[in-house]
């Protein structure tokens, strides 16, 4: 969420982090996201003196993109299938937590592990009377996925918020942190998203598609500020944080 419009209180960010948010494009539907978060947190927070709040976990999942143009045609992508985040969300809900699932559009979703990759086309078929029905091999899997997903959402245990770019991801994450701040030690962050290390500042981008006729592309990327420190020290100082770091292992076989 953009702090410039006064919708969230300022936090003690260092100059580098503050510069990132100040120069980021405004988050679309920031008011709608803020309302969803507020309602979700309130639903999982009993009135004072009437029990402890439900543990709320923010699970991030999938990879962020770095747009190269403001009207984006090209971008740099941090690939992640989102399988870890989606699967972990199921287990958190099963353990009694409420989950805010911050996910990359098009990545794995909770309760869909048992479905084929192209589930819409593979799981359904047209009957003789042109009705849509589930194909027999997938009947139980589809029934279970739909039932579990709707139960989690209807029960107030799952809130899904999508992102695509590094700008959207970090602005929404900060908004989530501000919304969950009053939960104190009942807040958990499970940061499984693959977050870009470098980006092109919004004001430095070409507005429209970069033309290949201009010759070789020479572009300077800026390092994304390390937001984990801000999350732990300023945004959610009492929360429990879990983060993951990708490590590439090279296997060599001596011949």
Q: How is this structure best described in words?
A:
With 255 residues, this protein is of the alpha/beta class. It has a domain at 55-114 and 158-243: 3-Layer(aba) Sandwich (Rossmann fold). The protein contains seven helices and eleven strands. It has helices at 15-23, 30-43, 83-94, 119-123, 139-154, 166-180, 227-235; strands at residues 56-61, 65-67, 75-77, 98-104, 124-126, 132-134, 158-163, 187-191, 198-199, 222-223, 240-243. Helix 2 (30-43) packs parallel to helix 6. The radius of gyration is 21 Å and the shape is globular. This is DNA/pantothenate metabolism flavoprotein C-terminal domain-containing protein. GO terms for molecular function: catalytic activity. InterPro entries: CoaB-like_sf.
Summarize the structure in short.
The protein has 255 residues and is an alpha/beta fold. Helix content is 31%, strand content 17%. It has a domain at 55-114 and 158-243: 3-Layer(aba) Sandwich (Rossmann fold), CATH 3.40.50.
- The span between the termini is 55 Å
CATH overall fold name of the domain at 55-114 and 158-243? Rossmann fold
CATH class of the domain at 55-114 and 158-243: Alpha Beta
Counting helices, strands and paired strands, the structural category is alpha/beta
Uncertain spans: none
Average of per-residue pLDDT values: 88
Order of SSEs, N→C? HHEEEHEHEEHEHEEEHE
In the CATH hierarchy, the architecture of the domain at 55-114 and 158-243 is 3-Layer(aba) Sandwich
Report the β-strand fraction as a percent range: 15-25%
| Approximate shape | globular
Question: Major sheet: size, sense and barrel closure?
Answer: 5 strands, parallel
Counted beta strands: 11
Radius of gyration: 21 Å
The CATH homologous superfamily of the domain at 55-114 and 158-243 is named CoaB-like
Q: Going across the major beta sheet, what is the strand order? A: 7-4-1-8-11
Helical residues, percent: 25-40%
Query: What's the tally of helices?
Result: 7
């Amino acid at each position: 969420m953009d702090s410039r419009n006064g919708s969230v209180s300022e936090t003690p960010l260092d100059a580098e982090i503050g510069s990132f948010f100040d120069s980021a494009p405004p988050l679309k539907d920031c008011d709608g996201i803020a309302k969803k978060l507020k309602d979700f947190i309130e639903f999982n927070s009993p009135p004072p003196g009437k029990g402890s709040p439900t543990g709320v976990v923010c699970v991030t999942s999938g990879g962020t993109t770095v747009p190269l143009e403001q009207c984006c045609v090209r971008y740099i992508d941090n690939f992640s299938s989102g399988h870890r985040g989606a699967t972990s969300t199921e287990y958190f809900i099963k353990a009694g937590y409420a989950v805010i699932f911050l996910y990359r559009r098009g990545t794995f979703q909770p309760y869909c592990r048992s479905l084929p990759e192209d589930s819409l086309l593979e799981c359904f078929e047209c009957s003789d009377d042109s009705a849509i029905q589930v194909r027999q091999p997938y009947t139980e899997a589809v029934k279970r996925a739909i039932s579990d997903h709707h139960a989690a959402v209807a029960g107030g245990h799952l809130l899904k918020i999508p992102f695509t770019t590094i700008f959207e991801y970090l602005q929404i994450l900060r908004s989530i942190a501000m919304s969950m701040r009053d939960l104190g030690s009942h807040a958990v962050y499970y940061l499984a998203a693959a977050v870009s290390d470098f980006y092109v500042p919004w004001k430095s981008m070409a507005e429209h598609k970069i033309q290949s006729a201009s010759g070789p592309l020479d572009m300077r990327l800026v390092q994304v500020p390390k937001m984990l420190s801000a999350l732990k020290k300023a945004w959610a100082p009492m929360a429990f944080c879990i983060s993951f770091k990708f490590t590439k292992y090279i296997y060599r076989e001596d011949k």
